[in-house]
Amino acid sequence: MNDRHVALLTTFFEAFSKSDTDAMERCYHPDVSFGDPVFQELEGRDKVMAMWRLMLSRGDGTDVTYRAITADDFTGSASWTARYTFTSTGPRGGQRGGGVLPLRRRADRAPP
User: Fold this and answer.
1) Is 5 exposed, middle or buried (0-12, 13-18, 19+ CB in 10 A)?
2) pTM score, two decimals?
3) Per-residue pLDDT for 20 more than 60?
């Protein structure tokens, strides 16, 4: 267990639950790679954060729950659910996620 990486993931999900994109951005490495079914593969913190800002700016409140955060030196995992109310259409949308999150390249032994 890597307590520092658990804290990083916890900080990210706390920021996500508050729609605090500045705090979310501080959790990402500049060279992050992010895959999403809608946005496809995004490369780099600027593109990933543009996606989050778009998603979180179009809603009228975001409800995020998360649990079961674990991490080692290279990967972390969490189970999470996010629900959005889209102001332009009214209905709530949602995402459910979980699985392995890469925290650092294996060749990169320096702390993130």
Assistant:
1) buried
2) 0.80
3) yes
- Eight-state DSSP code of residue 103: -
Which helix (H) or strand (E) element contains residue 86? Answer: strand 75-86
φ and ψ of 42, to 5 deg: -110, 135
Instruction: For residues 97 and 74, give the distance between their C-alpha atoms in angstroms, rounded to a whole number.
Output: 19
Cα dist. 94→10, 59, 63, 85, 91 in Å? Answer: 20, 11, 9, 9, 10
Coil, strand or helix: which one is 19? coil
For 2, the token pair is 């890597």
pLDDT at 111 exceeding the cut of 90: no
pLDDT tens figures, 38-52: 778 999 999 999 999
